Each structure stands twice: as C-alpha cells, then as structure tokens.
Amino acid sequence: MAITFAGIVLYFSLPRHEFGRVQTVLFPVYYAFNAAMSFFAVLAYFRTQCLTKFEHTSWIQLALLLAVFSIEAYVGKLVLGELAHCPRYLRVLRTFRRYHSTIAMGTMISLGCSVYSTMIIVDSMCR
C-alpha cells in the first residue's frame, strides 16, 4: 500500500496480521487504479502530441509514461481471497476508503495546483 496518512493510521490501529491482510487486498487495487490513470495519461499525451507534432523530447516523455503504465499494470492484480467475506474487514475497508479517498483527492488537487503554478512560472520565464 502506498505510504499515506490513512495507511499509517491503519498500520498503527490494526494488529499487524490484520493490517497485512488488508494490505494484500488494497495494494493491487491501488496499482490497478494507478495503471488505469497512467493509461489515460499516455492516451492524452499521445493525442496532444499528434496535434502539435512530436519532438525528440516528446518521444522520451511518451516512453516514460509507457514505462510507468507497464510497471503499475504488472503489479495491479486483484485477488480478494478470504477477506471478501469478512464483515469486520468490510467495515474497516469502508472506513479506510472514506478517509483514503478524501486524502487522495486533497493530494491530487494539491499536485494539480503545484503543476499549474509551475507551468505559469515556466511560461513567464520563457517570454
């Protein structure tokens, strides 16, 4: 599981063996979601570059995006196992998803704002 605030809270709140069982279920889901997002990023970048004509650095960036997608797609297998039928696990999972989703959304908004700010700074430097 990615090291996040929610992951750390679960690590210290659950007994070690239960956290390990939760992690074995959530870890593949996390990477499958990231792989899907990386795939969409590859498609969006490729489409943008088709419109603006590829440059040498564009091919490097496309290769890096494909590498990230490949890594995440390889790791992102989901096997629910016996936890899928455990009521306590399902309660913990719902709570975890609620906290983790909120934190993840905040992180993505922060990242987007940082990227946008960086783009503005670079654009102002290039004029």
UniProtKB/TrEMBL annotation:
It comes from the Eukaryota. Pfam families: DUF4149. It is found in: Membrane. Keywords: Membrane, Transmembrane, Transmembrane helix. The chain crosses the membrane at residues 25-46, 58-80, 101-122. GO terms for cellular component: membrane. Residues 5-72 form the TMEM205-like domain. PANTHER family: LATE EMBRYOGENESIS ABUNDANT PLANTS LEA-RELATED (PTHR23241), LD23009P (PTHR23241:SF102). This is TMEM205-like domain-containing protein. It comes from Operophtera brumata.
